[in-house]
Amino acid sequence: MSLAKKLVAELLGTFWLVLGGCGSAVLAANFGGDGNPLGIGLLGVSLAFGLTVLTGAYAFGHISGAHFNPAVSFGLWAGGRFPARELIPYVIAQVIGGIAAGFILLQIAKGSSGFAIDPGAAGAFASNGYDALSPGGYSVAAAFLTEVVLTAFFLVVIMGATHKRAPAGFAPIAIGLALTLIHLISIPVTNTSVNPARSTGVALFAGSGALGQLWLFWLAPILGGLIGGMAYGWLGRDER
C-alpha cells in the first residue's frame, strides 16, 4: 500500500474518531438539558468513542493499520511494529483529520441557536483539561498520571490484540472496547484524551483555556504510548 493511501486513511479515520466521539459529547451527551432521557451521558460518549475506533479499524485497518492517534503511532514504533520513516507523516495526517473534524463539528453545533462555547468551562466543546478545566476538578498531577497510564495500557491492548498469535479478525473489537473502558474511567478526570490529535482537533475551537493546557495532552499520551509500546515489545518478543 502506498504511503499516500495510508495517510489518507489515517486522516479519514481520525476525522471519524473526533467527529463521532467529540460529536457525541457536544451534540448528544446532554441533549434536552439535565435529566432528559434522550441525553446519552458519560456512558454514551464512552461507547461512541469506542465505536468510532471499532468501525474505523475495520474500514481502514487493512490500509494504514488504523492508528488514528499520534500516541499509538509512537507506541507502535517503540514496540518495533512501525517504521520511523512514516511516523511524522502519520502524525501530521492524524492532526489534520482531527482539526477538520473539529471544524465540521463546530459548524453543525452552531446550527442551534442556543449553542455557545464558554472557554472557561470544564470540557468546553469536548476539550480536555485539568484543575479548573477538569470535569471533576482533578489536579494536573492526577491528569498527567491518568493519561500516561491509560495510554500505556491502550497500547498493550492494541499490540496484544494485533499479535500474530491473537485470534484473527477480532482486534478492532478489543481495541474499541478498551477505548470505551478508558473513557468510562477518565472522563471525570480529563474528559479523556489518550490521543493528541483528538485533543488538538477541538482545543483549537474551544478557546484559550483548552489551548493553554494542550501541552499535557500531547506529552502524557505520547509518553504513555512509548511506555506501553516498549513494554509489550519486550513482553511479546519471544513469542512465535
Automatic annotation (TrEMBL):
Chain location of the short sequence motif NPA 2 per the record: 195-197
Highest rank taxon of the organism: Bacteria
Annotated site residues (Selectivity filter) in this chain: F49, H183, T192, R198
UniProt topology in membrane: Multi-pass membrane protein
Xref: Gene3D superfamilies: Glycerol uptake facilitator protein
This protein's record includes keyword Transmembrane helix: yes
Listed PROSITE patterns: MIP, PROKAR_LIPOPROTEIN
Cell compartments where the protein resides: Cell membrane
Site (Involved in tetramerization or stability of the tetramer): C22
Gene Ontology MF annotations: water channel activity
Keywords: Cell inner membrane, Cell membrane, Membrane, Repeat, Transmembrane, Transmembrane helix, Transport
Motif NPA 1, residue range(s) on this chain: 69-71
InterPro entries listed in its UniProt record: Aquaporin-like, Aquaporin_transptr, Aquaporin_Z, MIP, MIP_CS
Gene Ontology, cellular component aspect: plasma membrane
Catalytic reactions of this protein: H2O(in) = H2O(out)
Transmembrane residue ranges: 38-60, 87-109, 138-158, 170-189, 215-235
Function statement: Channel that permits osmotically driven movement of water in both directions. It is involved in the osmoregulation and in the maintenance of cell turgor during volume expansion in rapidly growing cells. It mediates rapid entry or exit of water in response to abrupt changes in osmolarity.
Domain notes from UniProt: Aquaporins contain two tandem repeats each containing three membrane-spanning domains and a pore-forming loop with the signature motif Asn-Pro-Ala (NPA).
HAMAP family xrefs: Aquaporin_Z
Family membership: Belongs to the MIP/aquaporin (TC 1.A.8) family.
Subunit comment: Homotetramer.
Name of the protein: Aquaporin Z
UniProt gene name: aqpZ
